[in-house]
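Contributing new records

If you add data, match the layout below exactly. Sequence lines come first and carry their own label; structure lines follow with theirs. Keep one chain per record. Anything else will be rejected by the validation script.
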Amino acid sequence: MPKFSMSWIYIIVIVGLIAVYMMGGDSISGSTNKKVSYEEFKSLVDKGYASRIVINKEESVLKMYVKAEHIHDVFNAGTKQTGKDPYVTTEFGSTDQVEDFLNSERQEGKFTGDLDYENKKGNNLVNILISIAPILFLVVIWLFFMRRMGGGSSGSSGVFNVGKSKAKMYEKGSEVNVTFKDVAGQEGAKQEVQEIVDFLKSPKKYTNLGGKIPKGALLVGPPGTGKTLLAKAVAGEACVPFFSMSGSDFVEMFVGVGASRVRDLFRQAKEKSPCIIFIDEIDAVGRARSKNPSMGGNDERENTLNALLTEMDGFGTNSGVIILAATNRADMLDNALLRAGRFDRQIHVDLPDLNERKEIFNVHLKPVKTDPSVDIDMLARQTPGFSGADIANVCNEAALIAARHNKKSVSKQDFLDAVDRIIGGLEKKTKVMTQAEKRTIALHEAGHATTSWFLEHANPLVKVTIVPRGRALGAAWYMPEERQITTKEEMLDEICALLGGRAAEELFTGHISTGAMNDLERVTKSVYGMIAYAGMSDKLPNICYYNNNDYNFQRPYSETTAKIIDDEVLRIVNEQYERAKNLLLEHKQGHKELADLLIEREVIFAEDLEHIFGKRPWTSRSEEIMEEQDSSEKAPEESTTTTTTTEDLPFEE
C-alpha cells in the first residue's frame, strides 16, 4: 500500500472543487437553480415572477432570476433553502424570438427587470481555473512555508514529516569507498572498530565463547585525528546497513521533534538489523543534564537525550543495532550516556606519533607529484603535534606552492615552506619597520635563541627569523620533544626560555615593549598550571585544585589560598626572569653577534648559533635522531628546515 501523504488530501480537494464547477459554477455560491421548459419560462414571466434575465448567446441558454416574494411559488421552499438569488434556466431557439416576447411583456407591465447578455461559456476549464486560482495560491503559499519550517527538500521535509529521522543510510556496495587501508596510523582504534565489523560478519566466532557484541563505541579525540574517517571506513567495510547522521540533526525548532527523530531512527535500524548507527558530534545532544531546574533542566535537548538513553539501553531490546559516536568533548557528555551497556567502549583517537605521521604522509602523498628530494622521515619530524587533517593540509599547501612557482613536481623546500605557512602564517616581507623596531625585534628573538641554547631541558632550536609572518613580527622555531610526562625542571627551563626575549629587551635596549605579550601569556598559564593543578609549589605541594564541574561557578579554594597561589606565581616568574637575564649577561657578546647576524640576514639557523656559541652543552633526543638520519647526506642548503613554532604576538598591533 502507498504511504499516506497530505498531498493526496490536496488533490482530492482540488478535484472536488473542479467537479462542483463542472456540475454548475454557481452552485458553490449556495443559490438554487432549476431547469424548466421554454413554455414554463414564458408562463413564469407572464405571471410577473422574473426580476432579471441573463441571455447566453453562445450556449442558447437563459437564466431567469426569481423575485424574492415568489421564490416559494416557483421552488416550493423558502430563501433559507434556495439562497437569496435563485434562478431557473431554459434553452431557447432564437434570441430575436426571446427579445420580442420580453418586449411585449414589458409593454403589458409584467416584466420590469433588466435584460443582460453574456457571450462566454460558464463552465469551461479556464473559468474554473480562474475561479479557484485564489484558493490554489493560498495552498501553495501554505505548503511553501510548511516545507521551510520542516527542513527543506523532499524526503523528510514538511511539517508533517518533521519528526522523521534525517539519517542517511548506506547499503553494501554504496558510494562510500573508504576502507581500513585508507586509515593510516591509529592502529589501536582501528583494531577496536574493525572487531565490531568482524562481529557483524561472523557473530558465531564470538557467541560460541559466550561473548556479546558491544552495544556502542564512542570515538574520542582532538579535532582532525580521523574519528569520522574511521566511521567512513566502517561504512565501507561493513556488510550491513549503515546509518549516518550528525548530533545537530536531532535539534529542531519544534518541541518534541528531537525525541521523535531518535525513536524513528531506531525504528528504521531495528527493521534493517543487524546494522550500525553513527552519530557524529554527539555532544550536540549528549551534554550533561543540569541538576538545577533553574538552569533549564527540562529543555528540548535534555528530552532528546532522555529518548536516546531509553532507545540505547531501555526496557526494550535493540538486538543487532550497534551505535558508533564521535566527539572531541567527552568531558561534557552525560554520565548516563557513557556507562557500560550504552557505550561499552571509549576508543581514544589521539594525535599521531612519529611513525603514525609517516604513514599518514604516505597516504596523502600518493596523488602528489614529488621529486626525489622529499624525505618523508624528515617531514614527519618537522610536524610534531600535527593531526591527520593538518598533514593533509601540508601536502595540499605544498602542491599549491609548487604550482605557484610553475614547477613540474613538488620539492622538499615546498613542503618546508608549507609547514612554515600553516604554523606561522603568510610571510609579509613588504611590512614597513624602522631600524629601531627591527633591532628591538632582533634582540628579542636573539634572547630566546641564546637562553634556549644554554638550558638543558629547553626544546632544541631550529631557526630564528625576524621576517613578519601572520600576526608575528618575529619567531623562534623549535623541534619540541614528544614527552609523555613533563618534570618541574623541564617546565622551568621552558619558562626561562620564553622570558629570554623580554629580558634581552630590558638589558640591551633599556626599555620593554608589547612584543612579549604572547610570551607572558604562555608563561602565566604555565606557572598557574604548575601550582594550582600539578602541585609543584613549595608552599602548596601535592595539591590539585582542578574542578571539572561545569555548573560550579566558585573557585575550589579560599581567598587565602588564592593569595598564596598568586604569590607563588610571581615568585617563580621573577626567579626565572632573573635567571634569563643572568644567562644573557654571561653570554652578552655572543648575543650581540647573533642579533647583528639576524639584522643582516633576517633568518638564522642552529648551525649559526653553534658557530657563535659552540656546540650546545646538552643534546636532546630529537637532536640525536636528526643527527643520525641526516649526517650521511646533508647539504648546506638543507639546514633551512623549520619546525613547530613558539610565535610571538606582534610588537605593534
